[in-house]
Amino acid sequence: MSTESEIRERVLRGLALNRTPGYHYLGNYLQFSFEHVSVPETRMTMDVGAHNAESNGNVAYSAVAIFVDIALASNVRAGHTPASRLATVQMNLQFTGAPMTGALQLESRLQDYIAGITSKQGATTVTVTANGKPVCLGTGAFMVLDPPPGVALYNMELRKAGDPPVAPLDENLLTSEERKVLMVADAAIARMQSGEAFIQGFLGVRTHQLENAAKGELKNGPHIGNRVGHVQGGITMGLGIATAEAALPANWMLSSVTAWYISPGEGRTLKARSKVVHRGRLTAVVRTEIFGKNNRRVMEMTTAHASKSSS
Fold first, then answer.
1. Mean pLDDT of 233-256
2. Would you say 128 and 106 are in contact if contact means Cβ atoms under 8 Å apart?
3. How far is CA 258 from the centre of its chain?
4. Is the pLDDT of residue 127 over 90?
5. Which of 269, 218, 280, 260 is closest to 243 using CA atoms?
């Protein structure tokens, strides 16, 4: 089977899994393996391949952000009900620069709940490894919320490697929403012929470099929403990272990202704008703002970048 056929089959399998309520399409598409989920510790695995890797072979930052977001929330959710709705309040990721290839293994832990506040927020930490080396260290804060009015939430089905396989959907039996997802995937597969990574076209992040700045855009759709229909938080972070990177020349490497989630990612399009606030000989800092429906602020982000070595 060709790479393109394997990706298309994965897209259709994700749609089949998505017919069971409780999760969201991106999680079903990326097919995380939940080895263990509890309040003290969560362990997960994500395979890296043509379906989620950039052209350099490393897994896309968006996929890493989704992976970490789901894991950190799992520790908090395990202390409530499997159907609990959580909102990401803040997330920080520190990258080591080691290759993010092959498969990513993750361990996350709940540290405690934040004391003295009116909301219920859990503070969590995570370590992601690949090829036996740490590739990402992170922290996050997650708030327990009631579901939106009229929205029923269901228990998440936590699959793991070795579970009975699920057959891809027959594309002749797709609903209109499912067909939209397949159309986006087919367009992204077609662009692979010109060298674009599938995940870039599938998620639909587009950036434009300006002088010491950049603009970014992401069109909303059923393939990037969370359980209540907002843009999934890892994708929002991925849009911010891509826009921040576009504001700098290619010789700069992302080293860390800190993001504050201010409001849900609602609307037909999310728009990002990045500005370089510091660029020295060895380090750079970029501020990124993301806006959604009615120009409402969705995210504030600060990224740090390091000058790449010539070797």
1. 96
2. yes
3. 14
4. yes
5. 218
Tell me what pLDDT residue 4 has: 94
Beta bridge partners of 297: 291
The answer to whether residues 141 and 122 touch, using CB atoms and an 8 Å cutoff, is yes
Block residue for tokens 């803040």:
90
| The two three-digit tokens of residue 262, written as one number | 């201010």
* Residue 49, helix vs strand vs coil: coil
How many Cα atoms occupy the beta-carbon half-sphere of 269 within 13 Å?
8
Q: How confident is the model over 55-65, as pLDDT tens digits?
A: 999 999 999 99
The C-alpha atoms of residue 135 and residue 246 are separated, in whole angstroms, by 22
pLDDT band for position 152 (cuts 50, 70, 90): low
Give the span between the Cα atoms of 45 and 160, in whole angstroms.
9
Q: Return the DSSP state at 114.
A: P
What is the C-alpha separation between 296 and 293, in angstroms, rounded? 6
Q: Are 55 and 197 in contact (CB under 8 A)?
A: yes
| Region for residue 116 given its phi and psi (left: phi exceeds 0; alpha: psi -120 to 50; beta: otherwise) | left
Q: Which of 31, 43, 101, 40 is nearest to 71 (CA)?
A: 43
3-state helix, strand, coil in the chain (%, to 5): 25, 35, 35
In 3D space, the residue among 250, 264, 262, 306 whose CA is nearest the CA of residue 288 turns out to be: 262
Q: How many whole angstroms separate alpha carbon 287 and alpha carbon 93?
A: 15
Contacts of 212 (CB under 8 A, 6+ apart): 247, 275, 276, 279
Are 263 and 235 in contact by the 8 Å Cβ rule? The answer is: no
| pLDDT at res. 311 | 62
Q: Of the candidates 196, 171, 191, which has an alpha carbon nearest to the alpha carbon of residue 181?
A: 171
| pLDDT value at residue 133 | 97
Q: What is the pTM of this model?
A: 0.94
Cα 174 to Cα 18, 20, 199, distances in angstroms: 12, 15, 22
pLDDT above 90 (res 83):
no
Q: DSSP 3-state assignment of 210?
A: strand
